[in-house]
Specification:
The complex is a heterodimer of chains A (about 230) and B (about 850). Chain A is globular, with a radius of gyration of 17 Å. In chain A, helix 6 links the parallel strand 7 and strand 8. Chain A contains seven helices and ten strands. Chain A has one domain: Rossmann fold, CATH 3.40.50. By secondary structure, chain A is of the alpha/beta class. In chain A, helix 3 crosses helix 4 and helix 3 runs parallel beside helix 5. Chain B is α+β, with helices and mostly antiparallel strands and about 850 residues long. Chain B folds into four domains: about 200 residues, no CATH class; about 180 residues, no CATH class; about 220 residues, no CATH class; about 160 residues, no CATH class. Chain B has a nine-stranded mixed beta sheet, with helices on both faces. A six-stranded mixed barrel of chain B has the order 3-4-8-5-7-6. Chain B starts with a helix and ends with a helix. The chains are: A alpha/beta (about 230), B alpha+beta (about 850).
Chain lengths: ~230, ~850
C-alpha cells in the first residue's frame, strides 16, 4: 500500500465503442493530470464517457490509444493479471450500480476486499464493522443486498470501496441514489474516512454540490477533458 | 478465498433444484457405468472362480473337442506313461426341479485320484464323509448354501434332469469350507463319484477330461509334456489349465465392449448435463463474476472457483452414483448372466462382486467428467474482461458468431469419425471412438440446425399465435448460449434412442426373415437343457426311431452340435443329416445354392456361417480342418450362409463326413417333415405321448420354435433396453435441468411481461410453448442423426462385434416415437418453471437481483 495517494496522468486517451455499423469515439484525445492526494470531480452529460474514463483508470478496460499512468506506472505495460492485482491492492471503486455481491451478506461484502489482500480475522472484522457504523448500517450487517433499499446499497458500496484503504478511490455517481441530506452527510463521512493526502479521489457526478466539495473539477466535452 | 467459496455454496443452495438435478445427472451417469462394469465383472469373476475351483490345483488338462475321452486312455496314462498325478473328470450341466431356474454343474471325480487336485474333496474336508460318498450310489455333495436354497439337507435327494432323464440323487454331505472363494466357486456344483456322473450323462466308459499336475519346476517337465503329447490319440489335446476358461471368458468380449460403450453414453449425457448446468451457473453469475473481477479477483481465481465448485458437485454426485450403481448392478446381474447363458455359455452368478478397481474407475470418471465438462464455461468466465463478463449481449453475440464455426468443426469431426470407420481395422474400440466422434460432431452442428429451424417456424408461429408465438421462437434464438446446449443434449439422447430402436428393429426383422427361411421342418425335437437358445445332450436311439417312424412323419433331418473350445479358436461344429425337404434352409452369401447343397450332401466340403467366415477372414474356397478321433482332414468351404444363432461361428458338415472323423453317432436334435404340415399340432401331441415316463423331451412345432427363438432374442436385448432407458433418463434430467435453468433465469424478463399485462395463463403458455418448441426442434433434428447412428451401429459396430449382416429397416413408429419423446420430455421440463413464473407476483419478479 502506498503511503500517499498516487498521481494520475491521462495522456491523449481514445476509446471507441461500436454503435451499429459505425464506431463511436467516447473518449477522443482526453488528457489530464491529477496530483497525488488530489480530489477531483469529473462532470459531463450522460453518455459523455465519464464511466468509461473510470473503467480505464481502474484498469477494468483498456484505451484504444493513449496512456494512463498511475504514479508513473503505465497501466498498458501491465499484464491482465498484474492490472487485476493492482486494482485489488490500490483501487477502491464505488460503482454506479453498486455491484454488491448478492450471495454475500452486507458484512461479507465489506470483508471481501480485505480477504483479497490477505486481511482476515478480527482485524478485518473490526475494520468492516467500523465502516458499517460509519455508514449507519451496523444493524444490516447480516442482511443480503437484495433486502436493502437503493440508498442503503449505495452506502454499503461506498464502505466497501474504502474498506481496504485504497490509494486511489474512483466513485461513479456515489450519491446518485441519495437525497440531499443523506448525500451531504455521507460525503462528510467519506471525507473523514479518506485520511488527508493518502487517497487520490476521482468522482464522476452530475451533482454541482458534490463537485464543489472537491479540490477541482474536470468536464468531459466532445471526448476531451477540460477544466471546469 | 473463504468468502468466494461461501458465495459458491450459497449459490448452489439458492438454486437448489438446479443443484439437485446436477447431482442427479452425475449420479445417474456414474451409476449406469458402474452397474454395467460391476455386473460384467461379477459375471467374469463368478465364472473364473467357478472354473478355478473346479480345476483345483491341476496344471494341465487333456481335452477333446467333443468332450468325450475314452476311459482306457486314462489307464494307459497311469500305467504305460507312469503319470501319477492324473485325475479323471466327468462334468456336465443339468437342471433341477429342486432348484428351479438354476443351472447346476455335476462334477464327477474319482476320490482315489483326487489327492493332489481338489483339497475340498480330500478325506479331511469338513462335512465330507468319504466312505459314504463312495458307497452311496449317485450320492452328491454340495455347499450348505446351495442346499439351503433348495430347502435340502444331508439325507434328502436332489432331483435333476440330464438329457431329459430324471434322476434323484441322494445328498451324502455338505461342504462346510471356511474358504469363501471355494464356497463361491462351488455355489452351483454337485460333486459326485465319477461312475455316477458317467451314468447321469450317459458316458459310461468315457471321460470329459483328464486333469494333470505337471509342475514346470520338475526337471522332467519337458519330457513328460512331450511323452503325453506324443501318445495323445487323435482328437485329444493337452492344454494348460485355465486356457479353456480364459477362451470362454473371451467369448463375451464383444458383448462386454458393446454394453460398456452403451453405458459410457450415460456419462456423455451426464457430461452434457454438467456442461449445461455449469454454463447456466456461470452465465447466470456473469454479473457477479464481472463484479469480482472489477474488485480485483484474477482470472485464475475465478477459474479455480468454478472448477472447485464442479469438483465438489462431481464428488458428491459420484459418491451417490457409486451407491446407486452397486444397487443397480444387483438388478442387472440377473439380466446379464441370462444373456450370457442364452448367447455364450452356462453361467450362474447371483451376487455382484464389488471390485475396488471398478469403484475407483467410476469415481475418477465421475469427478473427471464433471470437471472436464465444466472447463469450457469456466474458461469462458475466467477469460472474459470484467466488463464483458457482466454484459449478457456480449455473450450472446459471441455465441452467435461461434455457431457457424462450431457447425464446421462438427462436420469435420463427423467426417473424421466416418473416415476412421473406413480404416481397415476391426477394432471395436476404434469403432466406438469414431461413433462418439460422430455423435459429438452432430451435437456441434445442432445449434446451426436450431437457428435454421427457428427461421422457418417463427413466421408460422407468428401467424398462428401472434406476438407470443413469435416471442417463443425468438426467445430460443436470442438465448442460444443456453438453449443450444440443451437442445443438443436432447438431440443426442433422442437420436441414440432412435438409432438403437432402428438397430434392434432391423435385427429383429432380419432374424424373423432368417427364421422363416431356416426353420424348414414342421416339428423340432430336442432335449431340455440349461441353455434355452441351443440344444444339447443326445437323443436316445429308441426315441429317434419311434419319432421318425411316427404317423404323419414323411422325412427328417438330424442335427449334432459340438461346441469346440480351443485356445486358438472357438466355434460350433454341426453334423447335419439333411433331408431333401430341408435343403432350402440356407441363404448363402454368394454362389449357386443348389450346387453348394449338392456338394455338401456329397461330403465335398463344409459350409460355414457368416460370423465364422468374417471373424477368421475366410471365404469360399478357403480351407478349414476337421480333426476327430478317427481322422483329421482339411475341407474346402463350399459356401458362407447367413446365420444369427452364434457369434462365434458355425461349421456345418454332412453327417457322413462327420462320421468319418468322429466316433460319435449321437443326435442332438431332430427336424421332422410331415406329409401334411397342417397336422403339426396333432403330431406334436402324438410324439409327446410316446415319451416314456421319467423322461423329458422338447417337441415343438415350427411356429412354437420360431416364437421361442424370438423370445430369446427379446430377452437378450432386455439389458440393452434397460440401458437405453437409463441413458435416456440421464439425458432427460439434463434437459429438465437446462430448460428449468433457462426459464428461471428469465424471471426478470417474464416479470416485465406480467407487469405489462400478460396474464398468468398467457405466461404459462409462453413458457411451456417455448419448451415444447425446443423439444420439437430437437426431435426433428434427432431423426437424421438417429438414422445415421443406426447405419454406423448396424454396418460397422454390429459387424465388427458379431459378424452379422443386418438388413436395415426403418419403422416409422420409431421415428414418431423419437419426435414425441423429445417433444413431451421438453414439454414436461417446461411445466415447473411455467408454474413458478405464472405464480410469481410481477413485483417480486422485478425486484429480484439476478445472480
Amino acid at each position: 500500500m502506498i503511503k500517499s495517494g498516487p498521481s494520475v496522468e491521462i495522456i491523449n486517451v481514445r476509446k471507441v465503442y461500436p454503435s451499429g455499423d459505425e464506431q463511436r469515439a467516447v473518449l477522443d484525445g482526453a488528457s489530464a493530470t491529477i496530483r497525488a492526494g488530489e480530489r477531483v470531480a469529473i462532470l459531463g452529460p450522460s453518455g459523455s464517457g465519464k464511466s468509461t474514463l473510470l473503467n480505464l483508470l481502474s484498469g477494468i478496460d483498456e484505451p484504444d490509444s493513449g496512456t494512463i499512468e498511475i504514479n508513473g506506472l503505465d497501466l498498458r505495460s501491465l499484464s491482465e493479471n498484474q492490472r487485476t492485482l493492482f486494482r485489488r491492492n490500490q483501487i477502491g471503486f464505488v460503482f454506479q450500480s453498486f455491484n454488491l455481491l448478492p450471495a454475500l451478506t452486507v458484512l461479507e461484502n465489506l470483508l471481501l476486499p480485505l480477504e483479497l489482500i490477505g486481511k482476515t480475522g478480527n482485524e478485518a472484522n473490526e475494520r468492516a464493522r467500523f465502516l458499517l457504523e460509519m455508514v449507519e448500517l451496523s444493524k444490516r450487517a447480516d442482511s443480503f443486498p437484495d433486502r436493502l433499499s437503493g440508498g442503503e446499497q449505495q452506502r454499503i458500496a461506498i464502505a466497501r470501496a474504502v474498506v481496504h484503504e485504497p490509494s486511489l478511490l474512483l466513485a461513479d455517481e456515489p450519491t446518485g441514489n441519495l437525497d440531499e441530506d443523506t448525500s451531504h452527510r455521507l460525503m462528510e463521512r467519506l471525507e473523514d474516512l479518506l485520511t488527508s493526502g493518502k487517497t487520490t479521489l476521482v468522482v464522476v457526478t452530475h451533482s454541482r454540490d458534490l463537485a464543489d466539495r472537491m479540490d477541482r473539477a474536470l468536464a468531459l466535452d466532445h471526448g476531451g477533458l477540460v477544466e471546469y | 478465498m473463504r468468502l468466494l467459496n461461501k458465495a459458491s455454496v450459497r449459490y448452489l443452495k439458492q438454486h437448489r433444484l438446479q443443484s439437485v438435478l446436477s447431482l442427479l445427472g452425475v449420479a445417474l451417469g456414474v451409476a449406469v457405468v458402474l452397474s454395467i462394469d460391476l455386473a460384467i465383472q461379477s459375471a467374469r469373476i463368478g465364472f473364473q472362480v467357478s472354473a478355478e475351483t473346479v480345476a483345483g490345483l491341476a496344471t494341465h488338462a487333456i481335452q477333446s473337442d467333443r468332450g468325450s475321452i475314452d476311459e482306457d486312455f486314462f489307464t494307459r496314462l497311469k500305467l504305460d506313461l507312469n503319470i501319477t498325478e492324473a485325475a479323471p473328470v466327468v462334468e456336465g450341466l443339468v437342471t433341477s426341479t429342486s432348484l428351479p431356474g438354476r443351472t447346476l454343474k455335476i462334477l464327477g471325480l474319482d476320490p482315489f485320484s483326487e489327492g493332489p487336485f481338489r483339497p475340498y474333496t480330500s478325506g479331511n474336508s469338513p462335512g465330507l464323509d468319504l466312505n459314504r460318498f463312495i458307497t452311496t450310489q449317485g450320492g452328491v455333495i454340495l455347499t450348505e448354501e446351495l442346499a439351503s436354497e433348495g430347502g435340502l439337507t444331508t439325507g434328502d435327494s436332489i432331483v435333476i434332469f440330464s438329457s431329459g432323464v430324471r434322476w434323484a440323487l441322494p445328498i451324502v454331505g455338505l461342504f462346510q469350507s471356511e474358504d469363501r472363494l471355494t464356497r463361491s466357486g462351488l455355489s452351483d456344483v454337485l460333486v459326485m463319484d465319477i461312475s455316477g456322473a458317467q451314468e447321469v450323462f450317459g458316458m459310461v466308459g468315457a471321460l470329459t477330461r483328464i486333469d494333470l499336475r505337471i509342475l514346470d519346476s520338475e526337471r522332467s517337465y519337458e519330457r513328460t509334456i512331450g511323452e503325453i503329447t506324443d501318445n495323445l490319440p487323435n482328437g485329444l489335446r493337452l492344454e494348460n489349465v485355465g486356457t479353456r476358461s480364459e477362451t470362454m471368458a473371451g467369448m463375451i468380449r464383444a458383448f462386454d465392449v458393446n454394453l460398456t460403450a452403451l453405458s459410457l453414453l450415460a456419462i456423455v449425457f451426464g457430461m452434457f448435463l454438467i456442461y449445461n448446468s455449469m454454463t447456466f451457473s456461470v452465465v447466470s453469475r456473469r454479473t457477479s463474476f464481472g463484479r469480482l473481477r472489477a474488485l480485483g479477483v484474477t482470472r485464475n481465481e475465478i477459474l479455480r472457483l468454478i472448477l472447485r465448485e464442479a469438483f465438489w458437485v462431481g464428488t458428491v454426485g459420484t459418491v451417490i452414483g457409486l451407491a446407486l450403481g452397486v444397487f443397480l448392478a444387483q438388478g442387472l446381474i440377473g439380466l446379464i448372466t441370462q444373456t450370457i447363458n442364452d448367447l455364450y455359455f452356462a453361467l450362474s452368478v447371483r451376487e455382484i462382486s464389488i471390485d475396488t478397481a471398478s469403484l475407483l474407475k467410476a469415481l475418477t470418471m465421475g469427478i473427471g467428467a464433471t470437471v472436464i465438462s465444466s472447463l469450457p464455461p469456466a474458461l469462458e468466465a475466467a477469460g472474459s474482461t470484467p466488463r464483458a463478463a457482466s454484459t449478457r449481449s456480449i455473450i450472446e453475440s459471441k455465441t452467435r458468431r461461434v455457431i457457424p464455426m462450431l457447425a464446421w468443426s462438427g462436420l469435420a469431426l463427423c467426417l473424421l469419425g466416418w473416415l476412421v470407420l473406413l480404416l481397415p481395422t476391426r477394432s471395436l474400440s476404434v469403432s466406438f471412438i469414431s461413433l462418439f466422434a460422430i455423435i459429438t460432431g452432430m451435437a456441434a452442428i445442432t445449434p446451426l440446425g436450431t437457428v435454421v429451424l427457428i427461421e422457418f417456424v417463427q413466421p408460422i408461429l407468428s401467424s398462428f399465435f401472434g406476438t407470443l408465438g413469435s416471442m417463443a421462437a425468438r426467445g430460443i434464438r436470442t438465448t442460444l448460449s443456453r438453449t443450444a446446449p440443451a437442445i443438443a443434449a436432447l438431440v443426442i439422447a433422442v437420436s441414440v434412442t432412435v438409432g438403437l430402436g432402428i438397430m434392434i428393429n432391423s435385427f429383429r426383422g432380419t432374424l424373423i426373415n432368417w427364421l422363416d427361411g431356416t426353420l424348414q421342418a414342421d416339428i423340432y425335437v430336442s432335449l431340455p437343457g440349461p441353455q434355452a437358445s441351443r440344444a444339447s445332450g443326445t437323443l436316445s436311439d429308441s426315441l429317434i426311431k419311434d419319432f421318425v417312424s411316427a404317423d404323419g412323419v414323411a422325412g427328417y433331418s438330424t442335427y449334432r452340435a459340438v461346441d469346440v473350445i480351443r485356445a486358438e479358436d472357438t466355434y460350433r461344429l454341426v453334423a447335419l443329416g439333411l433331408d431333401q425337404r430341408g435343403e432350402g434352409a440356407f441363404d448363402f452369401q454368394s454362389g449357386d445354392s443348389d450346387a453348394i447343397i449338392r456338394d455338401f450332401q456329397l461330403g465335398r466340403g463344409a459350409i460355414v456361417s457368416e460370423p465364422y467366415a468374417y471373424q477368421r477372414q475366410l471365404d469360399v474356397g478357403d480351407s478349414i480342418s476337421l480333426a476327430g478321433e478317427k481322422s483329421a482332414r482339411s475341407l474346402p468351404i463350399l459356401g458362407v450362409f447367413y446365420d444369427y444363432g452364434s457369434e462365434q461361428g458355425t461349421i456345418i458338415v454332412s453327417r457322413d463326413l462327420y462320421n468319418t472323423a468322429y466316433n460319435d453317432d449321437g443326435v442332438t436334435s431332430l427336424g421332422l417333415f410331415l406329409g401334411d404340415s397342417s397336422q403339426s399340432d396333432r403330431v406334436v401331441q402324438d410324439l409327446l405321448d410316446k415319451v416314456p415316463v421319467g423322461r423329458e423331451v422338447t417337441v415343438r412345432s415350427n411356429a412354437t420354435l420360431r416364437s421361442a427363438s424370438l423370445e430369446v432374442f427379446d430377452r437378450t436385448f432386455k439389458v440393452t433396453g434397460v440401458l437405453r432407458l437409463l441413458t435416456f433418463i440421464v439425458a432427460f434430467v439434463g434437459v429438465l435441468s437446462a430448460l428449468t435453468a433457462l426459464q428461471m433465469e428469465r424471471t426478470h424478463e417474464l416479470g416485465l411481461l406480467r407487469a405489462s399485462g400478460l396474464t398468468p395463463a398467457q405466461l404459462w403458455r409462453l413458457v411451456v410453448g417455448q419448451s415444447g418448441l425446443m423439444g420439437l426442434i430437437a426431435g426433428v433434428l434427432a431423426i437424421p442423426v438417429g438414422i445415421l447412428l443406426s447405419v454406423v451401429m448396424i454396418n460397422v459396430i454390429n459387424k465388427r462385434s458379431f459378424g452379422w449382416s443386418i438388413q436395415m429397416q426403418i419403422d416409422p413408429a420409431v421415428i414418431i416415437q423419437g419426435i414425441a419423446l423429445a417433444f413431451f420430455a421438453a414439454l414436461l421440463a417446461g411445466i415447473y418453471p411455467a408454474f413458478r413464473m405464472a405464480n410469481t407476483s410481477p413485483s417480486v419478479a422485478l425486484r429480484r437481483i439476478g445472480e
